[in-house]
Known about the structure:
mainly alpha
Amino acid sequence: xxxxxxxxxxxxxxxxxxxxxxxxxxxxxxxxxVTEGWEYYELSGKYETHPDEDDExxxxxxxxxxxxEVENLQKKESRANYLLSKNKQDEEEENQKKMFKSSPPxxxxxxxxxxxxxxxxxxFEDNVEYVNV
Length: 133
């Protein structure tokens, strides 16, 4: 029973705060940045010297390329954050619209029916004049 409650709590916590999508996206961006850093450090992958180039690859000659790649990763992350927050806002607005549509509108208060029958009879009797014949 204890494991069930723990699993239920974690699942609902993750779905409540939607940290699953954001966590995986941030983790993926982090891994890409680490990979870029190591490739630049080792001058391997896209940073290595290609056969058709005359100059040998150095850190100084590849630094601009490295900065552009890091900036592109950062732009992708920012764009994804914006889209995620935009989707979340749209979902909240849609839920509010559904909530207002699902609840029936409240009728305006009827002032004539607000008094009970006994109160109206008492008022009526007080206003009647008795005539002796």
